[in-house]
Design goal:
6 helices; two-stranded antiparallel ribbon; about 45% helix; alpha+beta
Length: about 160
């Protein structure tokens, strides 16, 4: 298999630790999916993708498993995204330039207030946590063209009154 090379100076990698590009290169070289990596290290595919894009924090044990799976020295992973490092969550400009990410942004712009109203109606005054949240991406077959099913399974957090 040819060596996969990612330009670590291009979007979104310019603002990420260089090891993130190396993780994606190793993933491509091994022909692995985020789902396969997730199963190997005991996490969901969305969490693994978030880790690869610098949006999640791995433990030393998780980094060791990842390094072993992808043939990346644990010392390299630990040096760049180890215990001393913390994610800077939220990538890229606003509004997003990537068409797919822009459509997600557009979905929040168009449906954000109605979704908020429904959450308040069903749960009360509060928010949906993105810290205690699981995200899944599924493919749903449809004769008119397959559909993308996104699920945000977040904990409801009521606002306090004092």
């Amino acid at each position: 298999m040819s060596k996969a090379i990612i330009n670590s100076t291009s979007e979104p990698f310019a603002d990420l630790p260089q090891i993130c590009a190396r993780l994606l290169e190793a993933k491509a070289q091994k022909g692995l999916s985020f789902e396969a990596i997730g199963k190997a290290i005991g996490h969901d595919e969305v969490w693994v993708a978030a880790l690869f894009y610098g949006q999640a924090k791995a433990s030393p044990e998780e980094l060791a498993k990842l390094g072993e799976l992808l043939d990346i020295p644990n010392a390299s992973l630990s040096a760049e995204i180890g215990e001393h490092w913390f994610p800077r969550r939220g990538l890229g400009p606003v509004p997003p330039q990537d068409p797919l990410i822009y459509r997600l942004f557009e979905g929040v712009l168009v449906y954000g207030t109605p979704i908020k109203a429904l959450i308040h109606e069903k749960f009360g005054d509060g928010i949906m946590s993105m810290i205690d949240c699981k995200v899944s991406v599924e493919r749903k077959e449809n004769p008119k063209g397959d559909r993308v099913l996104l699920t945000f399974d977040g904990k409801f957090l009521p606002y306090l009154k004092w």
